[in-house]
Specification:
The longest helix is centred in the middle third of the chain and has 23 residues. α3 links the parallel β1 and β2. This protein has 152 residues and is an alpha/beta fold. The chain contains five helices and four strands; from the N terminus they run ααβαββααβ. The two termini are 20 Å apart. It has a single domain, classed as Roll (Diaminopimelate Epimerase, Chain A, domain 1). α2 runs parallel beside α5. The mean pLDDT is 92.
Amino acid sequence: MAGRSDRPRKFFSDEEQRAVVRAIEAAERRTSGEVRIHVERDLPRGLDPYQRAREVFAELGMHATEAHNGVLFYLATRSRRFAVVGDEALHQVVGERFWDDVASLMAQHFVGDRFGDGLAAGIAKVGERLREHFPYQTDDVNELPDEISYAD
């Protein structure tokens, strides 16, 4: 971990960034759901990762998707703290335990400094569940960008 920058745009290697975006694209090919990643250096004082993720979810306009089935993966690079949050329609069908399972899966990778792998694994798990409850529709529109969002 000591060798990895905590600057958001430098946190992931180019290959890790490409792998994460590929994971988003693969998940979204099979669902009408939307997946975003947001990376910033520090959690604002007084907020835990979940609270900050909810704020970022709103800031990125993720609540405005037609089916309310967006998912945000949030990571604060300095503290290495993270959260995964889903919009209301998805949360209603998967429940709190699902999000805990996704976070646990990701944490297994993060402990080994494999943040790109952890995000890709989390995205794949969420993508499976999105596909189950919100399958791809022929008239589906990609409502949100697939690239990683950064706050410097």
